[in-house]
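Dear support,

I submitted the protein below through the web form. The confirmation email said the job was done, but the results page showed an empty box. After a refresh the structure appeared. I'm attaching both so you can tell me whether what I see now is the final result or a partial one.
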Amino acid sequence: MATIKSDRIEVSAKAMGAELSSIRSTDGVEYLWQADPAFWTGQAPLLFPSVGNLPGKTYGYGGKTYRLENHGFLRKREFSLEEAGTDSMTFAFTSDEQSLALYPFRFSLAVRFRVKASTLSVEWTVRNADDKAMYFSIGAHPGFRAPLVPGEKRGDYELVFEKKEDAKRYYLTADNVLSGETGPFLEGKDRIRVSEDIFERGAVVLKDHRSRKVTLRSTVSSRFVTVDFPGFPYLGIWSPKGEAPFVCIEPWHGVMPLEGSTQDLKAKEGVIALEPGREFRSVYEITVG
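What the results page shows now:
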């Protein structure tokens, strides 16, 4: 576990999966979901090299079939702490024989956390260390407490989008792949109350939204969490069925495939192709108040 701080927030992360474990303000409010196993044991897993599941949990590359669990394998691997300063820290992972059995590419991935005032920035750097192009997806899955303060309930919260949206919602199967069914979402509005029925059919998956900033905000206390994700083409929003006291806001580079689709890794929707020796960088920010 490592911790960094600014004058307004203190942030901790663990080496397992380079996963956030706390975002706490100086007035004592914890914003990050605290992994109650009654609902969800995760907090903010890193999704790599796939977002969501694969049909049959398999994919093909180079004439071979490989098996991957939901959201890939990196969330269950230990990272090394490469840098630990007062306001920034960096975790790193390098491919090994165990990872090559699941994902046949040599690579490194660095996760840098930095804090300034009330904002945490999360930067990913993926480097292709192989002699061939590597294909991957990468995504964030942070969960935020809702309610944030005593006396509130999750239904007091709303999701506020940067822009008014007429985006489609892409529904998922029970196996966390796209079902092929879509439905309307927001319909000309920029906000929606966090009610139970939003998540009755699983996560909200968006592809054609215009917003690149979403705020989870209390209508009672005005406490909020904003996730700013420029450059991310896909977005997931999730909470378990029922009154689970948290909401995940998930920016993704990549998306789940369609149920029954062929699992050629190169043809996967949203997949990133990174040439040998090249780097892919992406940053998202979390601001609390």
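Response: this is the final, complete result; the empty box was a page-load delay. The chain has a mean pLDDT of 96.
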